[in-house]
Design brief:
Largest sheet: 4 strands, parallel
Mean pLDDT: 97
Low-confidence stretches: none
Bound molecules: Double cubane cluster
CATH class of the largest domain: Alpha Beta
CATH topology of the largest domain: Rossmann fold
CATH architecture of the largest domain: 3-Layer(aba) Sandwich
Number of strands: 8
Number of helices: 19
Structural class: alpha/beta
Length: about 425
């Protein structure tokens, strides 16, 4: 059926037939996984709406902003400092794709044993399926894992990519390197937008993005109540949408949702029974529309109460210090905040182990499911240390490696059910 957005998508050079197929599959998948839930908060209607318009209204907003002179910056990693983009009057969108629809195309130019996330963003480009990618004035890659780093070289043949160098350690010299990279990025963003970043502009951006993080932190505190007042799937969706929705509107809507959640917590109501096993997810990010594992867990008699992931607390835990007043000191505060990210690409990465154990204890979980995308070495290797650290705290862990395909759903369900049984 033709869509009212067809003209816009055509202008963006999308493959209209394949794109219509993608939206149909997405709609069905969403219906099965999300709309089948009972006891959802009224506030989730906003998220349902945003998701239903993921390639429509939000893209239209981006096009309107571009027409008024704004620039759109696309990123694949939470290391890219959004404060810089916002301070220069730009809009940042997360591009990490969570669907395998362009996989066949991607495997023509990437090894098959590449992680699904990388194949997904390359596939989306080759198959001309992502209106966000096609709306970007600047696409930013980064040297985190080897897979991404090398894939950007190939991706750059189809679309220019600006690559930030991310240190792999956290010594003083690594911090210096990171600071110089943030400054280099600032220059690139100023060139792309034509706007110089001022102290006031950066201050406003820091406050705005901290407000979004605070709203998500509030959500995380409220969801930890017993009985669990909101499903893990819904919280994951909120985190996913935070990467591309307008930050001011999104923050206001999440605060509203938190007010509703607060009332629910006060009334003692939950979306599941009090005694149901509480689990935490830890590991690789789950980009839209990757809802496979949370759905399996929550249909296996457990509930997800936390995500230690870049689409979760790793991205919302730390704020940028708001006390700085000069441009230089604010930039230092941005540099410091981003260096606290405990991605498995760092070595050593002891703080991630501490953060996972602390989070699991605070959330009073009965177990942790470590999620690794197949062929992701940093997270797969670190999973051994995570399991050991959790065992030291008496918390069992199940390690899952999977991709975006549905072939292993039954097998995963059997393993998850056995783990849930064991945690009871
Ligand atoms: S800061 S987690 S968003 S890099 S899953 S592509 S690591 S092979 S996504 Fe990430 Fe930034 Fe780190 Fe976060 Fe490579 Fe692993 Fe694939 Fe990954």
């Amino acid at each position: 059926m033709p869509s009212s957005y067809d003209q816009m998508w055509e202008k963006l050079n999308l493959d209209l037939d394949a794109h219509a197929g993608l939206l149909e599959v997405l709609g069905k998948f969403y219906g099965d996984i999300y709309m089948s839930q009972e006891g959802r908060l009224r506030g989730m209607e906003y998220l349902d709406f945003v998701l239903s318009e993921v390639h429509g209204l939000r893209i239209q907003e981006l096009q309107d902003a571009k027409a008024s002179g704004k620039k759109v910056v696309g990123t694949f990693c939470v290391f890219v400092p959004e404060e810089i983009v916002l301070a220069a009057g730009g809009i940042q969108v997360g591009l990490c794709a969570g669907a395998e629809i362009g996989k066949t195309e991607a495997e023509k130019i990437l090894p098959r044993n590449t992680c699904a996330l990388i194949k997904s963003f390359v596939g989306f480009k080759l198959a001309r399926l992502c209106p966000y990618l096609e709306s970007c004035d600047l696409i930013v890659g980064e040297t985190t894992c080897d897979g991404k780093k090398k894939a950007y070289e190939i991706f750059a043949e189809y679309s220019p990519v600006y690559v930030m160098e991310i240190p792999q350690m956290k010594n003083a010299c690594d911090r210096e390197l990171w600071k110089s990279e943030v400054l280099r990025f600032k220059g690139a963003v100023e060139d792309a937008t034509g706007n110089k970043i001022t102290a006031q502009g950066l201050k406003d951006a820091i406050h705005l993005l901290n407000a979004r993080r605070r709203a998500l932190q509030r959500l995380n505190v409220l969801r930890a109540a017993v009985p669990t007042p909101i499903s893990g799937r819904d919280v994951l969706l909120i985190n996913q949408i935070s990467f591309y929705d307008d930050p001011v509107r999104f923050t206001a809507k999440i605060e509203e949702l938190c007010n509703e959640l607060e009332d629910r917590v006060k009334s003692g109501a939950g979306v599941v029974d009090r005694g149901i096993p509480r689990l935490m997810l830890s590991g690789c990010p789950m980009a839209v529309p990757n809802w496979k594992l949370p759905y399996i867990i929550e249909s296996s008699g457990a509930v997800v109460v936390g995500e230690e992931s870049c689409i979760g607390t790793r991205n919302t835990r730390d704020l940028v210090d708001e006390s700085a007043s000069t441009l230089d000191s604010m930039l230092d505060a941005v540099v410091y905040r981003y260096m606290r990210i405990d991605c498995a690409c760092f070595t050593p990465n002891e703080e991630r182990l501490e953060n996972i154990v602390n989070m699991a204890k605070e959330l009073k979980v009965q177990g942790v499911i470590h999620y690794g995308l197949s062929f992701c070495q940093p997270y797969a290797i670190e999973a051994f240390k995570v399991e050991k650290a959790l065992a030291g705290a008496g918390i069992p862990m199940l390690s899952i490696e999977t991709d975006y395909g549905m072939e292993d759903v039954e097998q995963l369900k059997t393993r998850v059910e056995a783990f849930v049984e064991m945690t009871r």
